[in-house]
């Protein structure tokens, strides 16, 4: 069975809780990778993986360990692109699937918005994590886990 990898540095707590429950229920090996300690319940299926501090240290470790067929949960678009290139499935913590058909456009939009922000434009941040986001993510994760058992 494929493993589940979580870019835990920016994973909302509610999404983390959904992932933990799903991993336990489906007995899926799940790794939360971060450059800080991630609070997780004791579990044979859910493990933290702390990496050294440093730019993209967690991302680099995730990419190094991913194998084709694994699932990565991340909102980091460059990391998502690397995972897709390695043959992994990727979804955001809002349940949106990222794949070869949409990742390039998403990375280009991210780069454009970053350019706007660096020029002084106020573009706002990501919207808050809503009940709809929680439901969409839980449903998307359940569908992926059921399909990949």
Question: Features of this protein?
Answer:
6 strands, UPF0178, UPF0178 protein SAMN05216571_11395, globular, 149 residues, alpha/beta, Rossmann fold, six-stranded mixed sheet
Strand numbers in spatial order across the main sheet? 3-2-1-4-5-6
Structural class: alpha/beta
Largest sheet: 6 strands, mixed
- The stretches of 5 or more residues where confidence is low (pLDDT under 50) are none
- Percent in strands: 5-15%
Classified by CATH, the class is Alpha Beta
Q: Taking all residues together, what is the mean pLDDT? A: 89
CATH topology: Rossmann fold
Helix content: 40-55%
SSE series: EHEEHEHEEHH
- Tally the helices: 5
User: How many DSSP-defined strands?
Assistant: 6
Architecture in CATH? 3-Layer(aba) Sandwich
End-to-end distance: 6 Å
What is Rg? 15 Å
What does the overall shape look like? Answer: globular
Family: Belongs to the UPF0178 family.
Protein name: UPF0178 protein SAMN05216571_11395
Organism: Onishia taeanensis
InterPro entries: UPF0178
Tell me about this structure.
- The chain is of the alpha/beta class and 149 residues long.
- It has one domain (4-147): Rossmann fold, CATH 3.40.50.
- Helix content is 44%, strand content 15%.
- The protein is built from 5 helices and 6 strands, in the order E-H-E-E-H-E-H-E-E-H-H.
- The protein has a 6-stranded mixed sheet, with helices on both faces.
- Strand 1 (4-7), helix 1 and strand 2 (30-34) form a beta-alpha-beta unit.
- The mean pLDDT is 89.
